[in-house]
Every structure is written in structure tokens, then in C-alpha cells.
TrEMBL record:
This is Cell division protein ZipA. It comes from the Bacteria. Residues 139-152, 159-171 have a biased composition (Basic and acidic residues). SUPFAM superfamilies: Cell-division protein ZipA, C-terminal domain. One of its GO terms (biological process) is division septum assembly. The gene is zipA. Interacts with FtsZ via their C-terminal domains. Essential cell division protein that stabilizes the FtsZ protofilaments by cross-linking them and that serves as a cytoplasmic membrane anchor for the Z ring. Also required for the recruitment to the septal ring of downstream cell division proteins.
């Protein structure tokens, strides 16, 4: 009995071993099959996407018969030739249009309603123009022979004409302009009589452009140091109407450089700084006399620090001007 049990146990162990061996081989075969399928899939992906890498050829998305490719090429060539012909269309001969003789054709001299007619319409001649026209006709009828002037004299006259223009250009374009505003308090205005009295006390004189000026010397003598204008357009004053005059404020302005053609070296030294100090003192005196307020060029409150900053601008300008003269 014991021998049979031993044989049965040995057979069971052998069967279990064989079954395990069979399962291992089957699993190995499955893994090999999966590896082959994965390798084939990778090869297909590489083949399809090989053109995406540098050095690869163009990616093939499909195949076409040689006959189809030839017909497509001919079609593209024909379209290209037609496109070239269309571009040159402006050179073709236009078709002849039948002329309608009854239709009104605008002429060059016909009037055309346009907004520009008012601008281009010539002015009617005045009586003075007619008189000048008669004189010009008589002058054309009478021959006039003039002797040519010497070349040197012509150049001299031309230079004399150019000099005033250069002076005016220099006067119109100052290097620096400093402004101090004296404004009435909110809701009030300066009356003309009080303003005129304060200006006379500050030695301001009505002069060119109908505005007040402060000169280097008393009684309006010497070059203009600074000027004063009305803040209301056009900025002028009328002495005969000062009794009815009112203004919200006045503007004092200093234009640099100050004309110095008639000044000696002593008067010229530090002239710009002295002019600014005089203008600032005059502005403070006007504000005190008229119960006004000092404002800068942006009409903001002008403090002593703002005045000192403007003065430093003048000092720097004077320094650069001295270096330019040296």
C-alpha cells in the first residue's frame, strides 16, 4: 500500500512540474509574439514619419498614377500662362464705344460746382487796381531801357535786404522764455485803473504790440528786459479804455537772449539774471498791490522754490552763453 502511495505522489509531482513547464513556454511564446507586433508597429511609424527628421525625404501621403501627375502638371502650366496673360490686360486694345452726339460733354472752361470754387474764385478788382492797371499798360507801351547795375552794388543791396530778415528771425526765435503769471483770486478780476497804477509804480511802459515793457534804464531807455501782456486774447491794452477794463490776470515773460548790441561789458555782465530778478520782484509787487496770486507757466501756484528753480535756469543759460562767447 505504501508503494502505491509513493507512486501516486511521484506522478502528481511530475504532472504539476510538466504543467508548470507548459505554462512557462506558452507565456514565453505570447511575449515573443507581442514583441514582434510592437516591432512591426514601430517600423511602420518610422517609415511614415521618417520625412519629419532632418535629412529625410518628403513624407509620402499617397501615391498617384503617372498619367494623373502628368495631367495635373499640364493644368498648372496652363493656369500659370493664363495668369500671365491676365496681368498684361491693361495693354489690350479697348473696345470702341459708340459716341452719342446729343450727350453733353463737359469742357475745360465749363463751371463745376465744387467747394473749392469759393477758394479759387478771383477777387473783383478795386478802383485802385484798375488805376494801377492803366499805369501798367502805359508802362508796357513805353519802351524802357535800364542800365545794368554793377555786380558789387547788387550784392550790397541784396545783403542789406537780407540783414533785417535775419534780425527778425532771431527776434522771433528766443532761446529761452520764462513766464510768471499774476492772477486774480477765484471769482474776482483786476480792474483797469488799479492795474494801471500798479504798472506805473513798477516803471512799466506801454510800447510795441500794445503791451507793457520794462526797460534797462528808467523812463523807457535801453533794451527791453521783460514784457507784460493781458491773459485775455489778444493780450493787448488800451490806455483810453482802462476805466472800463477788467482782466483775470496778466503774464510777465522774459525772452532770452536780451538784445545787447548797445550795451557795454559792465551792463552786459549778468544782465539775464538781473532781468529775471527784476521780473520776479515786479510780479510780487503787482500781486501784493492787486491782491492777486503768483502762478507759473502752467498756472499752478508759484512758490519761492519754483522761482528759485526758474532762476537757476537763467544762471545756467548765462553760463553757457559766456562759454560760447569765449
Amino acid at each position: 500500500m505504501r508503494d502505491w502511495l509513493t507512486v501516486i505522489i511521484i506522478l502528481l509531482i511530475a504532472g504539476i512540474t510538466l504543467d508548470a513547464f507548459r505554462r512557462m513556454r506558452q507565456a514565453r511564446r505570447e511575449s515573443i509574439r507581442l514583441s514582434k507586433n510592437a516591432a512591426l508597429a514601430d517600423k511602420e511609424d518610422v517609415r511614415e514619419s521618417s520625412s519629419e527628421f532632418p535629412g529625410g525625404g518628403p513624407r509620402v501621403v499617397g501615391y498617384r498614377d503617372e498619367g494623373d501627375a502628368q495631367s495635373i502638371t499640364e493644368t498648372l502650366k496652363r493656369k500659370h500662362r493664363e495668369k500671365k496673360t491676365t496681368v498684361g490686360a491693361p495693354n489690350r486694345i479697348p473696345e470702341q464705344v459708340t459716341l452719342n452726339l446729343d450727350e453733353h460733354v463737359p469742357m475745360l472752361m465749363d463751371p463745376v460746382d465744387s467747394p473749392e470754387d469759393d477758394e479759387n474764385e478771383p477777387l473783383e478788382p478795386q478802383l485802385g487796381d484798375l488805376a494801377n492797371l492803366d499805369d501798367s499798360v502805359e508802362a508796357e507801351e513805353r519802351p524802357h531801357i535800364s542800365e545794368p547795375e554793377p555786380t558789387a552794388k547788387k550784392k550790397t543791396k541784396r545783403a542789406e535786404k537780407a540783414m533785417p530778415d535775419d534780425d527778425q528771425e532771431a527776434a522771433r526765435a528766443p532761446d529761452e522764455v520764462l513766464i510768471i503769471n499774476v492772477m486774480a483770486k477765484t471769482g474776482t478780476r483786476f480792474d483797469g485803473q488799479s492795474l494801471l497804477a500798479a504798472l506805473m509804480s513798477a516803471d512799466m511802459k506801454l510800447g510795441a504790440m500794445d503791451i507793457f515793457h520794462r526797460h534797462l534804464r528808467e523812463h523807457g531807455d535801453g533794451p527791453i528786459l521783460f514784457s507784460l501782456a493781458n491773459m485775455v486774447v489778444p493780450g493787448t491794452f488800451n490806455l483810453s479804455a482802462m476805466a472800463d477794463f477788467q482782466t483775470p490776470g496778466v503774464s510777465l515773460f522774459l525772452s532770452l537772449p536780451i538784445p545787447d548790441d548797445t550795451l557795454d561789458d559792465d551792463e552786459l555782465d549778468g544782465l539775464s539774471i538781473r532781468a529775471f530778478d527784476t521780473m520776479a520782484g515786479t510780479a510780487k509787487a503787482l500781486a501784493a498791490a492787486l491782491d492777486g496770486e503768483l502762478k507759473d507757466e502752467n498756472r499752478s501756484v508759484m512758490t519761492q522754490q519754483t522761482i528759485e528753480h526758474a532762476r537757476q535756469r537763467v544762471v545756467e543759460y548765462e553760463r553757457k552763453r559766456k562759454l560760447a562767447r569765449a
